[in-house]
């Protein structure tokens, strides 16, 4: 971990959509905010959601530091993250993150982190070890949201699939989607034994819990549904690394601890 001079002047607001279905309490987001806060020490960390509690406005009101970053806990940088989210943030905070003169900066979302592919690979290897599938080169299906209009969700999922193929841990890596072809509900019944299904979702709401449970109920035997990406134990460290990189890019002085 690094120590940032003038850290008390820095704050980060972690923003997510807010859970529907599943646990429906945004507890995972708040757990991650606590973890990042512990990792970064004196940097202020709060979390807010577009739907549910705590709201973005509530979380924003708890920040006191003058220089603020907004970290979107989203899986893709599509229409919603690039167009809708900045408007919602401006409405909730009175500060438009698209304004280059504002003290608030909007960072790239979690799902486009430079460290995502390596973190996912490491987690998949640990899962294969646990299931005694090491060396068997199982099939891997990435289950993602997709969209009928914007293609960033499927683009990012396919980019991750391309990166995972280069590891040679898997016989093949494919993607299927809730809202875009190839549709998950069409392909799930064709899975071969010991296929791993990785839900590429950032929380424990309706997609991660309800939709995956429905798919698991019709999947062939020996289809292994893994913990959704956002619920895995490395996520807080990756978020911390993203935020540390953003703080460093702001030309803050850093001293190694």
Description of the structure:
The chain has 257 residues and is α/β, with parallel strands linked by helices. The protein is built from eight helices and ten strands. The protein has helices at residues 27-40, 56-61, 79-93, 116-130, 152-165, 184-187, 206-216, 235-249, and strands at 2-4, 10-16, 44-49, 67-72, 104-106, 139-144, 172-177, 196-199, 224-225, 254-256. It has a four-stranded parallel β-sheet. A four-stranded parallel β-sheet has the order 7-6-8-9, with helices on both faces. Helix 3 links the parallel strand 4 (67-72) and strand 5 (104-106). Helix 1 (27-40) packs across helix 8. It is globular. It starts with a strand and ends with a strand. The model is unreliable at 251-257 (pLDDT under 50).
Quick overview of this protein structure:
This protein has 257 residues and is of the alpha/beta class.
List keywords for this structure.
four-stranded parallel sheet, 10 strands, 257 residues, 18% strand, single chain, alpha/beta, disordered C terminus
Structural class: alpha/beta
In percent, how helical is the residue content? Answer: 25-40%
Q: Profile the largest sheet.
A: 4 strands, parallel
Strand content: 15-25%
Strand order of the largest sheet: 3-2-4-5
Mean pLDDT: 88
Number of helices: 8
Overall shape: globular
What radius of gyration results from the CA coordinates? 19 Å
